Amino acid sequence: MAYLVTGVAGFIGMHVAARLLARGETVVGIDNLNDYYAVQLKHDRLAELSGHTNFTFAQVEIADAAALNAALAPHRITHVIHLAAQAGVRYSLINPHAYIQSNVVGQLNLLEHARHNDAIVSMSYASSSSVYGGNTKLPFAEGDRVDSPVSLYAATKKTDELMGHTYAHLYRIPLIGLRFFTVYGPWGRPDMALWLFTKAILAGEPIAVFNHGDMQRDFTYIDDIVTGVIAATDAPPQDNGTPPHRVYNIGNNNPEPLLRMIDVLEDAIGTKAVRRLEPMQPGDVPATYADITAIARDHGFAPTTPIETGIPRFVDWYRGYHKV
Q: Could you confirm whether 153 is annotated as catalytic?
């Protein structure tokens, strides 16, 4: 039995792989190690995993079906945790083709792998809270309409969900889509607000506060996310006549005002930020808020980490990693 973790050099992927290895699982990790952000950070994440004898890594592009199948052929994969994707709402305005290749073609190739692999028990995959687009009803629930995306990134994630439903219907593959809500924590992504703010404050530079600070985010700590991802993967939907496909919100169920997040970050760093108020950015939304009733009911998901705990942990890691 082996777990495939795609995007294993990414933020969530590294933490998921580490948790699985800690409980004794065999993990096959793949990643294309692209340069969307510093490749050294990805290598450093992989170094955290490389000491485990049950861990195997291959550098492969998931949009290349032949290369993907060749990399996976030596392994008996039973569980797929598909986290590889081109991330970032704003970058989708600059390089749209990267999102179609990674998020759509890559999803298709992983679904095809699962379709032709009789050993597969379940496949979970990353969706996003971005699919809710400009919805104004809060909290966001899985039954809400999600057919009005406001970014190409969101459109690709909704496409992933539609493809997942189709493959579950046609081939009865147990599939779980996970709509992540603003994940943060140690080893996070450099394009995320918490990292950008921390870097700027420590350097004495101003931070860009979009929509003049009138924003809310359901900040979700990485350890809570990992617990939910693995719980859902280990208990896939049953084939009871309907397609064995479920989509879950996975968030903190507690949206925080952006200005409150900055307050907590300032306290953790011990320095006040210079706040530069900016208008809303294209593709962004003013608020996210996860209704987690479904994943709590089906998988016992119950996040336990408030930002007052999680943000100082991130700052401590950031200082140690950058030696600042």
A: yes
